[in-house]
Model the fold of this input.
Amino acid sequence: MIGFLTRRAGAAIAVLLVLTAAVFVLQQNSPGDPVKAYLGANASPAAVAAERASLHLDDPLASRYWHYLTQALRGDLGTSYRTHRPVTADLGAFLPATVELVVVAFLFALLLGAVFAMLRTIAGTFVRGILLVGATAPPFLLALGGIILFYAHLGWLPATGRGGNDDGFLLTHSLVTGDWAQLGAGLQHVVLPALVLAVAPAVSIGRILRASLQQTLGADHVRTARAKGLTEAAVFGRHVLRNSIGPGLSMAGLQLGFMFAGVVVVEQIFSWPGIGNYLAESIPAADYPAIAGVTVVLGAVYVVTNTVVDMIQALADPRIAL
Amino acid sequence: MKPLRVTAAVLTAVLLISACSGQTNDAKAANPAPTDGTLTVGLLGDIGQPPDPDIYYANNGLAIVLNTYEGLVQYEDNLDTVKIAPRLATSWEVSADKKVYTFHLRDGVKFHDGTAFTSEAVKVSLQRRTDVKGGAAYMTAGVQSVDTSDPSTAVVTLKEGNAAFLDYLASPFGPKMISPDGLARNKGSDDAQTYLTTHDIGSGPYSLSAVQTGTKYELTQFDGYWGTRSPFTKVELPVYNDSSALELAFDKGDVSAIVAALPSSDLKKYENSAAADSYLLPTLQSALVTLNPSGSFFKTAQARLAFLQSLDREKLIPQVLGNRSELATTLYAKGMIPDGADKQNITYNPEAMKTYAATLPAGSTMTIGYATGNPNAQQLATIVAAQMATLNIKATAQGYPTAQVFDWVNDPAKGPDAFFDGNNGPDGGNPYMWGHVFWDKSGGINYFACDDPSVDADLDKAVLTGDNALFVSAAEKYAASGCYLNFSYNKDWVVAQKWLTGVAESHNIGANELNFAKLGIKG
Done:
């Protein structure tokens, strides 16, 4: 286990180095003057030149990258050109919203994926139909359709925001402190964006799990278990699900990583104050410190997620060694 | 699998019908007024920069700055011409050489932290603008000294005469008065820049009470405000990143007003609506066309002028911009030069472009740029590109992110041949503020560095005295270069719920925002 974690930590460092280097090369080769975005449209060339110097933007690429890495090791990811705040402070403010959204969306995806795979009734067919329609629609269309239907027409769910003034873990905080009114408002706000984010991953997870279940259901050991007189629930729980869940878990881990990367569109349309929204607003402004900061976070999340999934898979299936 | 396909088809149909059906805005009744004293003004996109008056240099967050801070002067509200009006200064005198400005300050004004407003605040505020070195720091760069010997009079002496100085102060981006005590208490190592990302130290009718960057901003009415107070004790400014979501929230009554945020394509929907009021209010903004002399297509003034003459503005403006815009007949903003002496002599004549096109090699290409996210400019660029095709020119309309647009000045050859600016304007109402930013190479918005040193010299000379004849001369010289066309005068479009009053009265030609203190509830 220690060897596995060491290898993964090494891989994480390599991934983050490559990602940040890519952002720096991109910055070097991209047209655009972030200082204009920083100072404003009518800023004079003299003011722009002075600011470029103070932000070290005229230094050689290698020098800037080295400076970035050494500062990053001290927990300083630079200052956002757009918000004028340290990127770490921005990430600290925006990341909790994204984490909560993705966690809720992931739970929805697991639940809907399980329903997609396992429910063999009319209701299951109905859910599969909804999920397939949703998964084939582009996320922005699904989001807008959801807002029109559930906010504008039915008035069941709010369209934007998180439903509270807490910049941090709003749902977690209200749950821990017993602030049920805030928890209710928070849940009401998270449902629609989380569902939009969950639909496509749910179908991916559901399809893999369904195929795996069908394969296991026809296996010899399942026939033997049934012949021993075990109930269908016991056969399914003990002999089918545990043997089939590996591919589903693997897909779920992959989808969790994709969900973090895919929050941009959903957070934009639902005005969800997370890192996806932060990234979307940073790109047109060529706010490279912010873009690099989000890249580092997403890269780290992806590596950690895959590590955790590998560990869960090993726990679920003793045949898998780490 | 068959039942699944049938279910999917049925669900798709149901969702489509549900989404498309229902009441449209023009069919539904007006929404009721709020009963909790909260005004909700929807923002399209986050404000982008901290709401610090010496930093903020963008548009959609101006409402926050202008309702939490006040300047010495402002532009007259509800007027379609440029006229300086009192704010924290009740009157002023300007020396004949435009070097000494004496302001008589309003009595009884307090900042949100309780500090009294005196001439010391004027000195501190102008100094901070210079020290912070934001985009609009140029406005105080010429200040030599501020005499504060009389607390109720501030005497500002400039290093040299500047006829635009009052306009600098009246500009929505101009220096705002801040509490000297508030600044000293929260100065830190960055002149209180960190503190002012989430707080304010102004004297405006509202104070900044909550900041959720990217989600919502909240203002609370200042009990000690010296001027008019509205029935709105709280103003919420929620951020919508999508104009459709913002419209839905407005139609549902969750948003009270939208200022200059919706695309012109929605104009008719609200102009004809019985459930909402639509206001077209005067501004200094214009749609502009800028041509690139560094590319191969528009190397000569003759070619550039031929292209500008080929634009059928009388058709394009109603088609794309609607009632929100009118054909620009002057080189500066509407009304900036008295009696329209700065006449723009570009009239529609497609023959000149046809003649120029005939001289071009077969397969000549042209790129027409627009700022990404500006649907009006995109539509204009697309239509004009299609028109160029009829002259056998392969024209392409292409969007560019803002940061890239501002980088062209460093290497104009990297820019497109032409650029459509859907809406742009000066910081204030003085002709220098227009001519300098759009025509001077060092102005900031001369995208392709199309420069005529004699124009810059005329502008620099004219600003010393305010000589309008010299301003007109500079404009005419620049127009002859063919690098620039004032395409249309644009208006500010405000959509408000029926119950909201005072919209036009709370708006001025310089600030594309509303003074929330002047708004009210009908009945």
About this structure: The radius of gyration of chain B is 25 Å. Chain B touches chain A through 67 residues (CB under 8 Å).
